[in-house]
Amino acid sequence: MKSPDSLKIAIAQCNFTVGDLPGNKAKILEFTARAAALKADLIVFSELAVCGYPPEDLVLRPAFQEKAIRAIKEIAAETRNMETAILVGGIDLRGGELFNTAFLIEQGKIIYRQYKYDLPNYGVFDEKRVFAAGGLPKPVKFRGANLGIFICEDMWNAEVPEAMKGADILISINGSPFEKNKAKLRLGYAKSAVKIAAAPLVYVNQIGGQDELVFDGGSFVISEKSQEKIALPLFEEKLFLANFQREKSGWKIKNNLARKTESEDEIIYNALVLALKDYVRKNKFSGVVIGISGGIDSALSAAIAVDALGPENVLGVMMPSCFTSEESLKEARQLAKNLGIRLEEIPIDPAFSVFRKSLHPLFTGRPEDITEENMQSRIRGLLLMAISNKLGLMVLTTGNKSEMSVGYATLYGDMCGGYSVLKDIYKTEVYRLAKWRNKQGNVIPKRTITRPPTAELRHNQKDEDSLPPYEILDAILEMMIERELPKSEIIAAGYDKKIVEKIAKAVNLSEYKRRQAPPGVKITTRSFGRDRRYPITNKFVD
Fold first, then answer.
1. Is beta strand 169-174 parallel, antiparallel or unpaired with respect to 201-205?
2. What is residue 508's three-state secondary structure?
C-alpha cells in the first residue's frame, strides 16, 4: 500500500437513476475499476448514489430498503480484492429508523458509516419525511489522513465544519439539483466550511435528470486557502483523480483542472437538453412528438428535443386552422427542414366544424368567445395524444413560465403532454435561448424570433391583446414568484398599479391549471410544482 504521505482521491461525477439498484451498482463498480486502474486510494460517489437521488417515498418500501442495503454489501464483496476504497451514498436501517448514509468501504468491508446530520426540508427537499437525522459527525482515520465527511447540507451547517476541526481533507458528497446561480452558492458554503475546518475540500455532485430536477455536477476541489483548484465540467459524467500530498503545513492539492467558461444561456440550455434526454431515456419512450406552430416556443422546444434525442426521434406535427397564417406554415416547414425532423400536417378545421355542429343546440344564441379558441387547442391536444398512443412517442408540451403563471394556456389543449421543457423558462428567456442556439448553428428561422407572438386562435390575434409586453410581464412575475414581493413593492418599483393587480389576480386564479400541468425541469429558485405549493382554494388577498 502507498505511503500515507499522499492520497489519490478519484471524483466520480455520475448519472444515476432512482430505483435502478442493479444499474447504479454496475456503474459504481465500473467507475471503481477505472479508479483502481489509476491507482486511486479512494473513489468518491455522490449522495444516495446506490438508490438514485431523490428517492422520495420509494425509500419507505421495505422491499426497496432490503435491496438497497443488500446492494451496498454486494459492492463491498465485489471490491474485496481492490486496493481502492469507496465512499458512496446509500441508505441504512438502525433501530427501526432510516438514515441517509455515507459508507466507507475498504477491501470488502464497510469500515465506517456516517449518517446525514442536517436534513433539508425546504423547496424541493423533504428529507425529514423519510429519514432520521444522525448525530454530529467527527473526522474518520483513513490511510494516514483524517477525513471530514459531509453529506450535502451538512457542509452548509456551521456546526458540522466546526466539528470537523482536525480533519486533514474534507469530502462533501451531494445530490444538489441545478438552478440559476447555484454554483456560486455551493462554492460560497464550501469556502466557509474550509475556513472553519482549515482543510482542503473535495465536493462531489451527481449529474442527470430526475423528473422535475436536473443535476449539473460541477464537482470541484478547493485548497485550504479556498482557491478552486479542480473544477469538473457541467452536465457530463467524469472521473478525475485529485492528488493530495502531506506537507509540513498540512495536506495540499497538487494538481489542477479548469472548467470551460460558459454563459448563463449556454448553461441553462444544456440543463434543458439533459433534463429532457434523461426523462425520455429513463422512462423508456422511443422519442417525442411536438405540435409545431411556427412560433418561438415550439421552435425552441423542437431544437432542444433534437439536441437531446437526435432528429430521427422527434416528430413535428403542424395542425393549421383557418386562422393559421401562411407565414406560420412557412416558418414551421423551414424549422423542420433546418432541424432535419419529419413534419406532418393535419388540418383541424374539419374536426372543429364537427364539434361546433355537435354543440350548436346547446350554444345557440350565444356569441363566439374563448370557448371556440379553447376548442381548437383541445382538438390539437387530442390529435397529439392519439399520435402518442399509436406511435409510442411522448408528447412534449411547449408552454413557458410566463404563460403558465397567468393561465395563458388551455387545459387539455396545449397543456397536454408528458413533459414541459420550458415550464420554468420565462418568455423573454425563450427568445434569449433561441438566439443563443442559433449562434451554435442557425436552426430557428429568423422571422420566428422577430415576429410578434400569437396563438392564432382568432383573426389578427396577438399575445399582447391579452397580456402586457413580455418584458414588463416577466419582470413583474419574477418579483412576484421568485422573490415573493407584495404588490405594493412591485408598484413602488415603477410598475403600473392596474397591470400589477391584473397579473397578481391571474397568477392566483391559475393555480388549478398549474396543478394539472405536466412535469417540467426546474431552472429557477421557485419553480411551479415542487418549489411553489399554493392551495387552489385560497381566499387570501394581498
1. parallel
2. helix
Please compute Rg for the chain using Cα positions: 26
Query: Is 116 an annotated catalytic residue?
Result: yes
Out of 14, 51, 152, 416, the active site residue is 152
Which residues is 234 bridged to in the sheet? 217
For 184, other C-beta atoms within 10 Å of its C-beta total: 8
C-alpha cell at 486: 407584495
For 13, list phi and psi in degrees, rounded to 5.
Answer: -95, 100
Check residue 158 and report its DSSP letter. Answer: T
Q: Does 152 participate in catalysis according to the annotation?
A: yes
pLDDT of amino acid 1: 47
pLDDT in tens, 146-203: 999 999 999 999 999 999 999 999 999 999 999 998 999 999 999 999 999 999 999 9
Give CA–CA dist 39/10, Å, rounded: 9
**Which member of 8, 116, 282, 401 is catalytic?**
116
In this predicted structure, the answer to whether residue 531 has a pLDDT above a threshold of 90 is no
Burial label, 128 (beta-carbon count in 10 A; 0-12, 13-18, 19+)? exposed
Residue corresponding to grid cell 465540467: 233
How far apart CA 437 and CA 450 sit, in angstroms, is: 15
For the question of residue 416 being annotated catalytic, the response is: no
Please state the separation of Cα 502 from the chain's center in Å. 31
CA distance 514 to 465: 22
Is the separation of the CB atoms in 410 and 374 below 8 Å?
yes
SS3 label, residue 391: helix
Q: How many helices (H) and strands (E) does the chain have?
A: 16, 20
Average predicted confidence (pLDDT) for the chain: 94
Q: What's the distance, Cα to Cα, between the start and end of the chain in Å?
A: 67
Sheet of 238-247, strand order: 109-115, 97-106, 85-94, 42-44, 6-13, 238-247, 250-253
The pLDDT of residue 452 is: 84
Q: Residue 54, preceding bond cis, omega within 30 degrees?
A: yes
Instruction: List Cα–Cα distances, 235 to 206, 305, 521, in angstroms.
Output: 9, 16, 14
Task: Give the pLDDT confidence score for residue 4 in this predicted structure.
Answer: 75
Check the CA dihedral 216-222-226-228 and report its sign: negative
The neighbour count for residue 339, using CB atoms within 10 Å, is 22
- Chain segment 393-437, per-residue pLDDT in tens: 999 999 999 999 999 999 999 999 999 999 999 999 999 999 999
Q: Sheet containing 342-345: which strands, arranged edge to edge?
A: 342-345, 314-318, 288-291, 394-397, 419-420
Question: Which residue type occupies 27?
Answer: K
What's the whole-model pTM score?
A: 0.94
Please, which residues have CB within 8 angstroms of residue 230's CB and are 6 or more apart in sequence? 11, 220, 221, 240, 242, 253, 255, 256, 257
Q: Please identify which of the residues 47, 127, 179, 212 carries the catalytic annotation.
A: 47
Cell 463491498 sits at which residue? 76
The predicted-structure confidence for 349-403, as pLDDT tens digits, reads as follows 999 999 999 999 999 999 999 898 999 999 999 999 999 999 999 999 999 999 9
